Amino acid sequence: xxxxxxxxxxxxxxxxxxxxxxxxxxxxxxxxxxxxxxxxxxxxxxxxxxxxxxxxxxxxxxxxxxxxxxxxxxxxxxxxxxxxxxxxxxxxxxxxxxxxxxxxxxxxxxxxxxxxxxxxxxxxxxxxxxxxxxxxxxxxxxxxxxxxxxxxxxxxxxxxxxxxxxxxxxxxxxxxxxxxxxxxxxxxxxx
Length: 191
Known about the structure:
The radius of gyration is 18 Å and the shape is globular. Helix 1 packs antiparallel against helix 2 and helix 2 packs parallel to helix 4. 31% of the residues are buried. It is mostly helical. It has seven helices and no strands. It is 73% helix and 0% strand. The longest helix is centred in the first third of the chain and has 30 residues, at 14-43. The chain has one domain.
């Protein structure tokens, strides 16, 4: 997404695009929270040790997949053809942000979002689910805006900074796996 938004940001109204993108992220995260909050309430029918075991098993699986470089994702990205139909930058930002804010419709480089959403649903309250989704959208939006801004300021692809493109993916995957494992250890230790 950062690569796509970088070029849109550079050529077509950066502030309007980023404001629309932020609005779209928050809108779709809020809609997703409306779906997942009741599921979280239903999950609490199951005793906590079972929910912790389920979360732990999936989080360790996701961490293992990240460490193996096999992060699960859907084979699609935000539709790039939308940038060609003459939409206003703000409207285009809303479309891209709404799609990205669903968290499940775009490629992810790490499993951290999956682990976070699962943990929030299984172990948290509906308020925690909402907060986790909005925090994820905010963090993602901040990352996209930061990388796009840096790309615009240095007028070069970030892969030209001396890191290989694989390293840009591997480092976050290792960090994601470490956070997932540390979270499992913390949650299990508190039982």
